[in-house]
Fold these 4 entries.
Entry 1:
Amino acid sequence: MSIAPHDVIEYWFAEPMRSRWFRSTPDLDAQIRERFESVWQQATGGELSAWMQTAEGSLALAVVLDQFPLNMFRGQAGAFASEAQSIEVALHAIDRGFDRQLPGEQLAFLYMPLMHSEDLEHQERSVHLFEAAGLESNARFARHHRDLIRRFGRFPHRNLIIGRPSTAEELAFLASKEAFSG
């Protein structure tokens, strides 16, 4: 099955998907896995790197590498398997000014890999980009993510999923009302 960037964009930004971006269900996760896991595998294998030559292609690749695995592999280490590649795509697109070619709603998903990074420099850049673009709702979440990385150096809610031990401070945070789970 051949897929083009437009196919990913059309799927991800169509109604009713927009209302489900941050409210997924097991059925939606299964649908994304069935429809796009082979595309994700191609992307992680470097077979879709040509997509990085356009704004639309970069956005589609960022969605495939950043968003789709969060759905396809929810609660598993695979959810973060292509995070580094999604960050590379986002930085490449930003460096080429592709972000200036995208509307705000799409732009948010190009910047999101930086918000998902456990690198403080990426987090700081994420906050700056969301604020500069006037995407205040996203910027609020970006600041929250950045503050977690400042505090812990990583996202504590990932520890169990990827098999790394939690510190006492992280466990206390995870047991608190301020805990962030995704």
Entry 2:
Amino acid sequence: MQQMTPTQLRDHLETASSMPQLIDVREPWEFDICAIDNSILIPMGQIPAKIDTLDPAQEIVVICHHGIRSANVCRYLEHQGFEQMINLAGGVDAWAKDIDIDMAVY
């Protein structure tokens, strides 16, 4: 698993030849407050049931509130054979502070 700060992820998204899949593993009520553009919601508890909807060959960025749940999901997916996992260090909270200062926080 690769760890990226919000600044590193922003730069990566701007230069990537192919857009990574952005998976937000928070709960729906959290996602309703704030979310990174182009991210899709799959709450952490639903990842095992939805694993077949993910492409193990695609680069996947996992996002949560502070980076803890997303790191756990990255490790789980790696154990399932996913190789291109990126964890957003600091989560959407850090993204809001460093990248999108207009984003709601909680």
Entry 3:
Amino acid sequence: MQNHTQVSRPALASERAVLLLERAATIYQKNLAETPEGGAYLKMRGITDAALWGRHRLGYSNGKLTGLLPRHGAIWDELKELGLLRPDGQERFAGCVIFPVIDAEGNLTAIYGRHTEEKDESYVCLPGRPGGLWNAVALKAYAHIVLVRSSLDGLSVEMAGYQNVIGIPGPTGLNTGDVAMLTSYGLQRITLLFNGNEAGRTAAGKLQTLLSPFNCEQREVPQDHEPNSYLIAHGPEALAQLLVDGRRTPASYRAGPGSPPGVQPIPGGFAIQLGLRHYEIRGLEKGPRKLKATVRVEHAGKLHVDTLDFYSARWRRQLAQDLTRQFDESADAIQTDITKLMALCEHLPEVSALTIPAPPTETMTPEERAQAEAFGKSPDILDHILADFERCGLVGERTNKLLCYLAGVSRKMDKPLSVLILSSSGAGKTTLQDAALAFCPPEDLVKLTSLSGKAPSTKTPAASNTRCWRWRKATESKKRCMRCATSSAPVS
């Protein structure tokens, strides 16, 4: 009787596992281009943009992976341990469209599959293999992401024009390690786009707690749809609108005749949605030859801010070029947007006057007015003024204080008085000025500072027309000035 002893094999090294995954993904990607089944399934699910197939390295398993392997060898055991082959030697992903999971640094970490035919097990993953976030590379480009529950939903959101989408493929869902990674990349805002049924709301509620470090908002796909089924039923524009509607608010005024709908006021301006692009116009300045404003554009998580004179063809052309390049949109669409914005700005009054309330004016009560009139008519008003100066910390200089006060109150006259203070350094010019200005209300006060020739300079004395007295004295004997650290020839 023979004794069969089972020999244990060493665990598959991580480097070897990644290499095998890369080779398998390459084979699957080639299969997608050469066999019609995978492409037909993706098109049936609304993923019709072949550029997305290549960008995310989508593939298809035709079940012939084992035919590329040698009849015997360690490779069979390695693929079984990795999970690409089942214990019976059959290919795990046979008949599946392949969705590689690539981390933020571009490394392949896992593979998921979806059967092209209806089966009980429609979603297939590698057993025991750590998952990961689909399209995690978006974390390096965007501070705002849209979070969905599968790779297919993520592709659907990209079909709607939003590349800042990340999927949570696999049964494990999001974990604390994933949240730590999101934090490490400086993520600020997350939009959850989940199913509109009870299961979707429950999953979103759990994630809200886990994602508490971020500014998190929730969108529901209506009618018990998931993002992919909603894409199939209603198209990419409707799916994009689910992400747009959340930031709209009811308009508090109507635009002029023929203006685009959906205009809404915001602090300092107005906002409007044109296609998938969200525009905000702030600080509108209008004149016979000027129509100028700050334009803020947001699309698919990307942001562009610029100042535009709509009546300048060169400025319009430059903005159109910048937006076309940054958002990967057609030049015609962007130029049409700018034309619509210009027409809208021409119809509306200046936005600053329309949306920014005027600052409240200070009014005096009858009691305060009576006190002020009594103070102005007081025979000893000068003594009161000097006493107030002393309370502010300035003692002495009676004449100078009264003169500065008189100049201050003359600001309301048609020809106000001006004061020029001349004295040596350290004599208290700034103290006198600040004490007099303390009696001036903030709305009437403008302080300007001018540096004199004697102010500290980064220039050396040889390059400056103002030189310290030590330097002048040193040049007479052609010695080095220790303060200015130079020994140039004297200036004639």
Entry 4:
Amino acid sequence: MFRRIILLLILFPALMFGQRVVPSLDFQKMIQPIPKSAKFEDKNYYIWGGSLMKDKTGLYHLYYSRWKKKYGFNAWVTHSEIAHATAPTPFGPFTFRNVALPRRERKIWDGLCTHNPTVRKYGNAYYLYYMGNTGDDKQTEGLNFTHRNNQRIGVAVATDLNGPWERFDHPLIDVSSDSTAYDALMVSNPSITIRSDGSYLLIYKGVAKKKPLPFGGPVVHLTATSTSPTGPFVKQMQPIFTFKEANFSAEDPYIWFQDGKYYAIVKDMQGFFTNKGRSLALFDSEDGFSWQLSAHCLVSDLNILWETGMHEKMSHLERPQIFFENGTPAVLLVAADKEENGVIKTSYNIQIPLKP
């Protein structure tokens, strides 16, 4: 009884003025053990990331990045393609169906590589946001910087999750012409949500030319808004998810709007925000432009728990995406891999159950 009185006293000002009290999300408490079927891998391909949608029949559609293992892990930047798989449940087992965004003419901005999909439904259409690039088409042991620095952001549109997908001959988000801009070198990794006023907020990764090339930097995240899911988008050019003087503090944002707040899960590159090393961190925002660490900032470290009771530590846990069931976060999708003697021999998508 005493605890209830204290809680009412805390909440009273907000209740008195008609404000909705929004509790802070605690993802660590929401994460559940992972079924064995919720690991999607392919012996011939590296698999990375994944965006999940459900159709009218109850079938689940996964869009993900893949590239042949024979090219090596760093061929994500030269040989990735966005593929499509389906499953009867959000936890698999998933079966490959087709390549949603295959290679096309090299002269086109996304002609040789498509990567990191995020799928949304707005109105009666589906929108597949992604990174695309082109370049010299050379497989390199390290990162091919010709392709890396040609990364741009695109969107493909379809009326059915099985496609076909209409692609465009120009990027949705291009680099800024100002050589001093935060996104003058390359842009990538789009995430989008619809705002309370019906407009669209897109957050993306940008790299400046202020640090030595070819890597450049700093690597930051920026916002852009539009009244249409296919743009044009207006850039705000104010970096977010930054940490002091770090050249590359965060990556792979996934954003959404829930209960009057904007949320973002990002890859914390070195534990700048969570103090847990390489991890996933939660941010929130009142307006989508000014972001702060959430009260429960740690989403996950590199350790996962399988339904068998086995704990497993990954080398990387990245590309967070959420699947919502009836407006509630139900599945956290992540890309994962394990290194052996410094070499990544396989990677896959994992679908983690979430407790409301």
